[in-house]
Amino acid sequence: MKARVHVTLKPGVLDPQGAAIGQALGTSGFEGVTAVRQGKVFEIEMADTDAATAEAQVDEMCRKLLANTVIENYDISIEG
Amino acid sequence: MKTAVVVFPGSNCDRDMQVALRRASGQEPVMLWHKDTAIPAGIDLIALPGGFSFGDYLRCGAIASRSPIMRAVADFAAKGGFVLGVCNGFQVLVETGLLPGVLMRNATLKFVCRTVALTVEETQSGYTNEYSKGEHITLPVAHHDGCYVADDAVLKQLEDQNRIALKYAEAVNGSQRDIAGILSENRRVLGMMPHPERAEDPALGNTDGARMFSGLVSQALSA
Fold it and tell me: How close is the nearest chain B Cα to the Cα of A70, in Å?
């Protein structure tokens, strides 16, 4: 069983890295990029269990370690 | 004053802190390893040094904050012990939840390594009682992730409770309210990005950090 976690900065939190990447996309010739926000993806291999239990476990992982909820949101998807 | 310095894999200011605490207290600091689970009896101050604990993996300070020694440090703080976190130590303190907010990548995206101007905002603490309120001092900084961020409610609480100990007196890293160092509610925990341990020896050309350590010693002796 595999869980995928997206961690993203909360709206309103300054993201200078995302802004720099957006600028670099512009100078690379990609026109029309209006904003870039940088985040993280975690792919977590887990022992097989039911999806609800797995999601609850991963939710706790996010709150305790994977995300800093002062500045970050997280989104969990359970695959197979 | 009996002191201890926590060493994490990737700490690189632990020896500087040891030297500063030895000079100020006249006693040999205890060096604690991140896998230790207990604080020796009689310790008055625990210092979390600067560096790049665990390579700044995940978020700076995040892995170190989950190490065994930090549970003991949190218990020590809860009982009113002094805990000083400098640079990476400050990042570990916010990740542990002993101080509010978070330290993010500098707004300039540049690693900043120079001596900066600071204002002492608050003198009612063991760390700052030998400075005067509003005093301008200079201390070295060396960090990539020193931009202090917290929500408005936390910032207001820090201001209302006079817990902002140090502010930058020049543009350094984009920190909200120019915050360079904050105190816990009981004023026993201080997290700061500048390095007082790099400015306590006359041979290094700046002793503005020395009073932080001598102030702690006098506070610990009078307690």
Answer: 7
Q: What is the pLDDT of residues B127-149, one digit of tens each?
A: 999 999 999 999 999 999 999 99
CATH superfamily entry for domain B3-222: Class I glutamine amidotransferase (GATase) domain (3.40.50.880)
Q: Which domain holds residue A20?
A: 2-79
- ipTM at complex level: 0.85
Query: Residue A59 belongs to a domain with what CATH number?
Result: 3.30.1280.10
Distance CA A29, CA B80 (A): 57
CB contact under 8 A, A17 and B109: yes
Q: Tell me, what's the pLDDT at B213? A: 97
- Count how many domains chain A has: 1
CB contact under 8 A, A65 and B59: no
- The nearest CA of chain A is from the CA of B93 a distance in Å of 13
